[in-house]
Amino acid sequence: MGDIQYDEASADALVRAADAAAEQLRGQGTGRRAAVEKGTDDFSGAYATRFEESAQIEAADRPKLATVLDDLSDQVTAATAAAKRERERQEDLAAWQVRQDERDRKAAESPTTFFEPPPTLGFDFKPSETPIAPPSISAAFSARSRTRTGSGTSGGKSSADPDHLRSFATDYRALDLATTEKQTTLRNAWNGFTGSCGWVRVSSATFFIGFDRLLEENGEDAAWADRIADAFERAGGQGSISNATLDVSAAAELPAAITELLDPDLTPAQVAERWAALGYSKADQRDLEALPIPVLSKIGNLEGVDYWARDTANRAVLDARITAAEQEVESLRNTIAYDNGASWGKASTNLEALQAIKTASEFQGDSKAGERFIVSLTDDVPPLAAVSIGDLDTADNVTWAVPGMGSDTTGMVGWTDSAQNIYDQQKDIGPDDRAVISWMGYDTPPQPVISGELDFGVLGSEYAQKGGDNLADSIRGLDAVRSGDVPTTNIVAHSYGTTASAYALTQSDVHVNTLTTVGSAGLPNEIDQATDLHVDDVYAGQAQDVWLIEPEKGDQWAWTGRLSPEHSQNPIDPDFGATPFGTDGIVTDGGDVNPVEDHGTHTGNDRGYLDLGTESLRNVGYATTGHADDITADPPKGPTQYQRSILETPQWTL
């Protein structure tokens, strides 16, 4: 007969922990009611009803758990008493057995002695040999789940004050933290009890699972309130938001309708169909702004989604990314020596690009300048982007302006200025409802010499092929959005952008009305006829080719790109079949028209391919608005005087 396994100190610790946790749970009633009252202030609609329902479930489940813990405390107290009685029974039986053994010994030594009376009056009864049955501990509790989205919330709108919801979430988390501390003490005590009190049986102990679930549900209530507050803050603060939008913004996981829309395998036409099924219109801009930033980031770049929606999404994402980038730059400012400033430099470039996109997207204030829309903003660091001047959802004439080598979004303002010049040039000769896209939608190769290092990516096709794929997707997206009202479409491509555009226009399901190349770095060799491109009319402008070392003015870079073994086709070659146009400047009845004297598009002296007042830009305007008859001819050029002088010297004679 051995001692039972029951440590009273461990049992007492469990009783104290259970009592303390139960008291904590009951004592939070007032605090939780106050927190809920804060949250419900100015909260109305279906989501307010869901909020109140969740609070009611918590208010019922919490005291139930406290009652379970009370009962656990009572059961352990009873078990301690039973263990004490069992120990006393075992001790009494052991003591009696010692006395009995002594009597038996004496009887064996004096067999003639029949009876020896006990030293005291009475009889020495044998204690019970039946052990006290070990008690069974049972503590079962299950917290209920809470419905927060769906199930009838989709119709109508809800209103809320985000500050009140934040206050609720803060208070709820503080109460949960205090409860978690008691729960931790209880869990440690329970582990100590079960490890040292094996005499008792545990028939059910689901209360910890239920306790965890209760706190998880409370935590999700707080997170849910924060997500709703986030949605209202993104939408500008107080006011109403559709319950359908909150079903997305407030959910811990995206609903099926959104995940299906974001399926990367969808075609732009399929995206357009699913987007239309969601029912958003321009009147729902506030609702769209309320969607989570990760969702907005995808919608803003989703070909097939209406452009007003993409602009709304991208502006919200851009502001969030600028804030995050500013914080990153500041945090890295004091760690520049860690990696020679590489991380800080990358973060600074990213911030510069984001800020440039922001500036480029801002309306210029002139009613004739055209409203601006951010129609793409990728997750790259720095990002790719596209800004439309004019409304792509309604424009009768759409032009993509595709940049060349050395372009990225840190230069978004300059490239958008070039696109604005195209828009302005079209103003007097084209439709009033038009749009020009400042399309910085691909990674371009750098100029061959950057900071003294040679980089000949411009002579290859890798950048152009990827850029062509991206441009083709953009064209497909417009086709999907405007399927019932297709506008006239044009591409104006500069430098290496002509190479990328050619790759886009050889894809089977891509077509535009016109392609205009300026300062081409060469089209792919396999495209040796304009008819190889899926375009109705091709126009080409090329300024005088000049060398970097010569004093004469002209295009110093385009000819180097056409040295490529992969894209050497010059679109102004007569055999190619494009319509060449003049860029050298002419005298007209209205005055002089400037020549192009640089490879750039928007230069400080108004001599770039897309500078206002140039013959080049004027012809671009004619080409993209259906006025081909007004295009001025391109006179033969040949070598410059400097080039002839060099080539005619004896050492250059073959």
Explain what you see.
This protein has an eight-stranded mixed beta sheet, sandwiched between helices. It has helices at 8-27, 29-40, 46-109, 162-196, 207-234, 243-249, 256-261, 268-278, 285-289, 293-299, 307-332, 342-360, 412-427, 462-481, 496-504, 558-561, 615-623, 641-647, and strands at 136-138, 157-159, 201-204, 240-242, 372-377, 385-389, 397-402, 434-440, 449-450, 453-454, 488-494, 512-518, 535-541, 579-581, 586-588, 591-593. It is built from 18 helices and 16 strands. It is 47% helix and 11% strand.
Write the layout of secondary structure elements.
Blueprint: H1 8-27, H2 29-40, H3 46-109, E1 136-138, E2 157-159, H4 162-196, E3 201-204, H5 207-234, E4 240-242, H6 243-249, H7 256-261, H8 268-278, H9 285-289, H10 293-299, H11 307-332, H12 342-360, E5 372-377, E6 385-389, E7 397-402, H13 412-427, E8 434-440, E9 449-450, E10 453-454, H14 462-481, E11 488-494, H15 496-504, E12 512-518, E13 535-541, H16 558-561, E14 579-581, E15 586-588, E16 591-593, H17 615-623, H18 641-647
Parallel strand pairs: 1-3, 7-8, 7-11, 11-12, 12-13, 13-14
Antiparallel strand pairs: 2-4, 5-6, 6-8, 9-10, 15-16
Helix pairs in contact: 1-3, 1-4, 2-3, 2-4, 3-5, 4-5, 8-14, 10-11, 11-12, 12-13, 13-17, 14-15
